[in-house]
Amino acid sequence: MNPLSIMPQQINRKAIVTVSPIMGGAGIVFDGLRITFDVQKTNEKKVQNKAKISIYNLSDESFNWFTKKNMAISLMVGWGENADNLLFYGEIVRALKEKKDADWIVNVESGDATKAYKNASVSKSYPEQTPHNAVFADATKELFKGNIIKGVKGIFATPNTFKKGFTAHGSATKVIDDILTINNYEWQIHNGILEIQKKGVSSNVVKLSSASGLIGSPEVTSTGIKATCLLQPEIAPMQKLYLDSIYLKGLYTPTKVTHTGDTHEGRWETTFETDERTIL
């Protein structure tokens, strides 16, 4: 679903939070409550995507779900009766409860694949003529252990080999970055999935104009452009975007994306930045 095709329903905001064990199993769904969020996504390889999510007026029993070990949180958003757009999935890092006026609020901090960046590692030597694909596969296997990531989106295929052999030592994400970079691929861990693609290639293009949710005029910065639109979960790093405004028109790739929302009032927006500058 393209949320910008139903702009008149922007006032009918919908958000659903699910908390469940990272390893799989029964979870709990929070629907119909006031939910606010600030989700930050970036293509910087050493920086994981993060989210701050607040849920209003939960029972003590419900709050206990957030404080268990090895729990994950997912945030679905939408309009009207449906919330079928996954905006964020990650491990719960911290959950605190606070009183604000008449409300009890659970504030949750989450990181997308925290253990992938901190714990998954590779230490292996490879002989001469080892295919790059084989090293990539071994590093990826480490990310599958313990459901650190849920899967891989995209295909990595190259005829290249390490003619003199190769030693992989360090974090699995660093090894993956080294292999993919030398083969002109880009990657990210997005909502618990390792996404890979050839640099500059994207299967879909998000089209954005004032008629489809662009708010105001994009800002030209010292490094690229910055723009804000009505909330659009599809906008993410590595996702191509065609921007059509009065002064800016062209194909861009966001490098940083922030989704901010409140089901009851205030902002329900996506802000993105790029390193490209195309000025008519």
Topology of this structure?
Layout: E1 13-21, E2 28-30, E3 35-42, E4 50-56, H1 60-67, E5 71-79, E6 82-100, E7 103-111, H2 114-118, E8 121-126, E9 130-131, H3 132-144, E10 151-153, E11 161-162, E12 166-171, H4 172-182, E13 185-190, E14 193-198, E15 205-209, E16 214-220, E17 225-230, E18 240-244, E19 249-252, E20 254-262, E21 268-274
Parallel strand pairs: 10-14, 15-18
Antiparallel strand pairs: 1-2, 1-5, 3-4, 3-20, 4-7, 5-6, 6-7, 8-12, 9-11, 13-14, 16-17, 17-21, 18-19, 20-21
Describe the structure.
With 280 residues, the protein is mostly beta strands. The protein contains 4 helices and 21 strands. It has helices spanning 60-67, 114-118, 132-144, 172-182; strands at 13-21, 28-30, 35-42, 50-56, 71-79, 82-100, 103-111, 121-126, 130-131, 151-153, 161-162, 166-171, 185-190, 193-198, 205-209, 214-220, 225-230, 240-244, 249-252, 254-262, 268-274. The strands form 5 sheets. It has an 11-stranded antiparallel β-sheet with strand order 2-1-5-6-7-4-3-20-21-17-16.
